[in-house]
Amino acid sequence: MEINFYIPTKVIMKRNCVLDNSSLIASYGKKAMIVTGKHSASLNGSLDDVEKTLKAKNIEYVLFNKVMANPTIDLVYEGAKIAVLEKVDFIIAIGGGSPMDAAKAIALLAKNDIKEEDLFTTTITNNVLPMIFIPTTAGTGSEVTEYSILTNDKLETKSTIASPYLFPNLALLDGKYMNSLGKATTINTCLDALCHAIEGYLSIKATSLTKALSVEALKIIASEFDNLKAFNLTTDDRDKLLYASTLAGIVIAHCGTVAVHILGYSLTYYKKIDHGRANGLLLGKFLERVSAEKQELINEILEALSMNSLKELEDKIDSLLGEKEKLTEEEIDNYATKGFAVPKLKNTIINLTKDDLKNILEKSMRG
């Protein structure tokens, strides 16, 4: 048995954990940059809690609330420039995957002079601003990963900066910040976490330890499917989904994602389909392809979900997705070609051809 496990992020999950850990937050410096989106952190109370905590400890801060969905390279360079000018000591990210991904890049660029053309290939050292992450969606798991995923217009896809030095120092988890999330965002982020847990299970890097985390995440997510469909979620339900998302994030920190995410990036870039929804659209047909060679692994996943067949899982996902977007034959060929060229495709437990990718797209979204 071989296991190589590393998760340097301190994780605290508790109601009011932001307010209750002011001394810990203050230990990271005297001036912070808050990285978040335009509205959600203000609406869900997380920004208010952070500001109260900082003020209570006389910590200065600058608010960078320009992060959009699928953050761009230009955005993170802008944020880093402000962080340097303001001489901030640490970063606090509030939000879903977009603010957290942007915050990692900003923390890196604020301490390093990296040209744009080298951003995704440069060697990263430990010269990175400390980071505190407060997730307000249950899906991305970025609070416990070493990845910063940015929109790369040059390659017309999303690209990843990856380094152990991009793990946040501290993650503060409180499901109360998700109570104001709408149904679509709640479902899409949950589907992303579902895909993280399953794709990690079907990675060549999966170990007995990461599989155990995947199974725990899958059990929790499956137990909330009916509440998601009815959109009848208590704060405790939100806590469970947030916990599952973090577990699944730990999984992909060690295993990475596989074909579903690779194909999903094109759906997000070209068709503007939400990241989690894009993955959910493709998951079922991907699993059907895997089952042809690795039925035993699919059976293990289904057991964790307390389901008897892939059709049962696909029906559950379809009930959450509603009417599906469609792709043309030209789009399918283009996305399959791009996906097949991604080296990370080899992370998948089975070998996939370009035709395999086309079939997954066709069966999932053919117009």
Structural features, described:
The chain has 367 residues and is of the alpha/beta class. The chain folds into two domains: 10-177, Rossmann fold (3-Layer(aba) Sandwich), CATH 3.40.50.1970; 182-365, Dehydroquinate synthase-like - alpha domain (Dehydroquinate synthase-like, alpha domain, Up-down Bundle). Helices cover 52% and strands 11% of the residues. It is built from 16 helices and eight strands. It has a six-stranded parallel β-sheet with strand order 1-8-5-4-2-3, sandwiched between helices. Strands 6-7 form a two-stranded antiparallel sheet. Helix 7 (183-201) packs parallel to helix 12 (275-291) and helix 8 packs antiparallel against helix 10 (235-255). The longest helix has 21 residues, at 235-255. It starts with 9 loop residues before the first strand and ends with a helix. 49% of the residues are buried. The model has no long low-confidence stretch (mean pLDDT 97).
Layout of secondary structure:
Layout: E1 10-13, H1 17-20, H2 22-26, E2 31-35, H3 40-44, H4 46-56, E3 60-64, H5 73-86, E4 90-95, H6 97-109, E5 131-135, E6 147-152, E7 157-162, E8 170-173, H7 183-201, H8 208-223, H9 225-230, H10 235-255, H11 259-271, H12 275-291, H13 295-304, H14 310-321, H15 329-340, H16 354-365
Parallel strand pairs: 1-8, 2-3, 2-4, 4-5, 5-8
Antiparallel strand pairs: 6-7
Write out key terms for the chains shown:
367 residues; alpha/beta; Rossmann fold; Dehydroquinate synthase-like, alpha domain; 2 domains; six-stranded parallel beta sheet; two-stranded antiparallel sheet
Please state the overall shape, judged from the principal axes of the Cα atoms: globular
Q: Between the first and last Cα atoms, what is the distance in angstroms?
A: 46 Å
CATH class of the largest domain: Mainly Alpha
CATH topology of the largest domain: Dehydroquinate synthase-like, alpha domain
Number of domains: 2
- In spatial order, strands of the major sheet run 1-8-5-4-2-3
Give average pLDDT, whole number: 97
Alpha plus pi helix count: 16
Question: What's the CATH superfamily of the largest domain, by name?
Answer: Dehydroquinate synthase-like - alpha domain
Largest sheet: 6 strands, parallel
| Strand segment count | 8
Radius of gyration: 20 Å
Strand content: 5-15%
Any guess at the CATH architecture of the largest domain? Up-down Bundle
Question: SSE order, as H and E?
Answer: EHHEHHEHEHEEEEHHHHHHHHHH
Helix content: 40-55%
What class do helices, strands and sheet pairing give?
Answer: alpha/beta
Any low-confidence stretches, pLDDT <50, length ≥5? none
